[in-house]
Automatic annotation (TrEMBL):
GO terms for biological process, alphabetical: DNA transposition
UniProt keywords, alphabetically: Coiled coil
Region of interest (Disordered), ranges: 1-21
InterPro entries with a match to the protein in the record: Homeodomain-like_sf, Transposase_8, WH-like_DNA-bd_sf
Protein's recorded name: Transposase
Keyword Coiled coil listed: yes
Pfam families: HTH_Tnp_1
Length: 113
């Protein structure tokens, strides 16, 4: 069950991958049983006490990851995030090296005069 809300503010709850997968399977099962997508996410979310939008996003991402619908897969998004982090680190290292080269170049100029 979700955590209690205090002062009207929603709380953030982290769901395990197993909880997410089970909820997605329930939505898909209900869709197959009813033969429609209408209201299935809302019904499952209400039964489990999960946020409707959270569950909707999980189902959409599962469809993308399985190639049912087009989009950026979870693996691709993780790879892009890792590459962006590496890019930031390399830029930071290059800036440090540039400043060091400038500093030591100026120091050598002073020694040669």
């Amino acid at each position: 069950m979700p955590k209690e809300q205090s002062a009207g503010k929603p709380t953030m709850r982290r769901y395990s991958d197993q909880e997410k997968s089970a909820a997605v399977r329930m939505v898909r099962s209900l869709r197959a049983e009813l033969g429609t997508e209408h209201g299935t996410v809302h019904r499952v979310a209400t039964q489990l006490g999960y946020g409707v939008e959270s569950l909707r996003v999980w189902v959409k991402q599962a469809d993308i990851d399985e190639g049912v619908t087009p989009g950026v897969t979870t693996d691709e998004a993780a790879r892009v995030k890792a590459l962006e982090q590496e890019n930031r680190e390399l830029k930071r290292a290059n800036e440090i090296l540039r400043r060091a080269a400038h500093f030591f170049g100026a120091e050598l100029d002073r020694q040669n005069k």
